[in-house]
TrEMBL record:
Keywords: CBS domain
Residue stretches spanning the membrane: none
SUPFAM superfamilies assigned to the protein according to its UniProt record, in alphabetical order: CBS-domain pair (SSF54631)
Source organism (scientific name): Dyella marensis
Gene3D superfamilies found in the cross-reference section: CBS-domain (3.10.580.10)
Record-given protein name: CBS domain-containing protein
Entries under SMART domains matching the protein: CBS
One Pfam family it belongs to: CBS
Domain CBS: 12-69, 78-135
Highest taxon, organism lineage: Bacteria
PROSITE patterns registered for this protein in UniProt: CBS
Length: 144
């Protein structure tokens, strides 16, 4: 399938592990370690996205301020609201959001607003849309 015909659902990592706002940062970091990811979706009981927690969020908003990751809660330092797209978004839409917001990952939601996947820069690389990936990579890596 050509990149121009692909949708977010075709390249996303489906059903990512998630955490809640009440989970500890240590728990979120453990998910990152076990899944080898740098971002975990933060959801409510219905799996609707409340935000995302990144490894950078944990370091910059918690650790650097001397807070304890075993006591601090995800809701205290997550990025919210998170920028999302629906699963039928085109790869171009995904790339444009990444470039415009300077983000490396996009949570993907289904028709009912539940988290159903994540598209990362590496997912773009695995398609024939390498030029899109190069544009996104250059943009998100450029300092503000």
């Amino acid at each position: 399938m050509k990149a121009k015909d692909m949708k977010a659902k075709d390249i996303m990592t489906p059903q990512p592990r998630c955490c809640s706002t009440d989970d500890t940062l240590e728990h979120a970091a453990r998910i990152m370690l076990e899944e080898d990811v740098g971002e975990v979706p933060v959801v409510d009981a219905q799996r609707h996205l409340a935000g995302v927690i990144t490894d950078r969020d944990i370091v910059v908003r918690c650790v650097a301020n001397g807070e304890r990751t075993d006591q601090s809660r995800v809701g205290q330092c997550m990025t919210a609201p998170a920028k999302t797209l629906q699963e039928d978004a085109s790869l171009e839409e995904v790339a444009n959001l990444m470039k415009g917001e300077r983000i490396r990952r996009v949570p993907i939601t289904d028709g009912s607003g539940e988290i159903c996947g994540i598209v990362a820069l590496a997912d773009l690389e695995r398609t024939d849309a390498r030029s899109l990936k190069a544009e996104v990579s250059e943009r998100v890596s450029t300092p503000h």
